[in-house]
Design a protein that fits this description.
Strand 10 and strand 11 form a beta hairpin. The protein is of the alpha/beta class and 400 residues long. Helix content is 27%, strand content 26%.
Length: 400
């Protein structure tokens, strides 16, 4: 599906570090919408081998802040046409999304989110436990008596899933066909800067395959962001936690909507192949690693059985982990930085996959024009020093 360039060119207009969904989407829209084709995407491993291929593929826009709702709603809109844009089946499937509430406090938060969503034209509503039971009759809304019962939920009809690998391939192939070079197995060793009137500016990138001259570098490397920022003398409040997931053996289709429980730290959907794709909250320790653990499988399986006791004989087929780049306000860091020509797309934590299209659109605009796209004004690098946070913890505290 992709051209394999035999060598790096000495100069590129833009260098993108990271060939995951976000980096490839930015390259695609730079070429398609802005006519910038002399672009190199550098990837230490392989296309989509980071968090793009390690998530649970849930797509939604039922966030809590006005900034988050508008941003993700634009992403959901863009998702609708991606398969046609790419001429590639992404297995995009609208399922509906239930965020379960097990306490009165959770129900209040669901009402809050529903009102914010409706204000910005997003289809969300609070439903009671009986409505949840009608939609998912195989769920034990009493949770087996081991946890608080389901009192209701926030229902988000546009909630969907897609095939994550195909999204990376689609953006990669589209960028490749427009002249973008994708260099896999190419590790960035340093980002070169020089003094300028505003402070410092990017002048090049040194890799394990040679040096590149460029005036623009976009960093889209998720859990590797702190190391990249050190290369240009910047720091951030990003901290890294492992985030694990697992899938079951294929079973006959029975679960149409996506189910999320913040109280039980469970989220689950059923793939087109019949697998149950399951995840939980972040691992409680900071660790730059993608190792997976038995403790995760045991804990998640126990909570899954509280909701769906009939699954007790279903086997877990595989598990994996990714590195979640978390911020204090649970919102991303996007746009310009104090280093001229260095742009950042990071801090996605547990919700980066669903933002792939809108990240590509907004970051390509920002790189091409050197002006922050209006949709990402609230996610600026400098918001922490200004104490102007965009608090999304109420809608993203479980890794989903």
């Amino acid at each position: 599906m992709f051209t394999v360039p035999d060598r790096l060119k000495p100069t590129y207009d833009v260098v993108i570090i990271g060939a995951g969904g976000h980096g490839l989407a930015a390259a695609y829209y730079l070429a398609r919408d802005h006519g910038i084709h002399n672009v190199a995407v550098l990837e230490r491993g392989y296309i989509g081998g980071g968090n793009t291929g390690r998530n649970t593929t849930i797509i939604r826009s039922n966030y809590l802040t006005p900034e988050g709702v508008k941003f993700y709603d634009e992403s959901v809109r863009l998702w609708q046409d991606l398969a046609q844009d790419f001429d590639l089946n992404l297995f995009y499937s609208t399922r509906g999304h239930f965020t379960l509430a097990h306490t009165d406090a959770s129900m209040r938060t669901m009402r809050w989110r529903a009102e914010v969503n409706k204000h910005y034209g997003v289809d969300s509503e609070v439903v009671d436990a009986q409505e949840v039971q009608r939609a998912v009759p195989m769920m034990d809304i009493r949770c087996g008596g081991h946890s608080p019962p389901v009192l209701g939920a926030l229902y988000h009809a546009p909630g969907a899933i897609a095939r994550h690998d195909a999204v990376a391939w689609g953006y990669g192939r589209g960028a490749d066909r427009r002249g973008v070079e994708i260099h896999q197995n190419t590790e960035v060793l340093s980002i070169d800067t020089e003094e300028c009137e505003s402070g410092r500016a990017v002048v090049g990138v040194t890799t394990n395959r040679g040096r590149i001259s460029t005036r623009k570098v976009l960093c889209a490397v998720a859990g590797s962001t702190p190391g990249m920022l050190k290369m240009v003398g910047l720091s951030s409040p990003i901290y890294i936690h492992p985030l694990q997931a697992m899938v079951s053996e294929p079973v006959k289709p029975w679960l149409d909507p996506v189910i999320v429980s913040g109280s039980l730290h469970v989220y689950v959907s059923q793939s087109a192949r019949g697998e149950l794709v399951m995840g939980a909250s972040l691992d409680p320790y900071e660790l730059h690693s993608t190792r997976s653990t038995l403790d995760f499988v045991e804990s998640l399986s126990a909570h899954m059985l509280e909701l769906f006791p009939f699954l007790s004989d279903v086997r877990v087929m595989r598990q994996w982990a990714g590195m979640a780049d978390m911020t204090p306000d649970f919102s991303p860091i996007m746009g310009l930085t104090p280093v001229a020509g260095f742009y950042i797309d990071a801090g996605w934590g547990t919700w980066g996959f669903k933002a792939t299209p809108v990240c590509g659109k907004t970051m390509s605009h920002t790189v091409a024009t050197n002006r922050t796209h209006p949709l990402i004004d609230a996610f600026g690098y400098d918001r922490f020093s200004r104490f102007e946070l965009t608090g999304e913890k109420g809608a993203a505290s479980v890794g989903h």
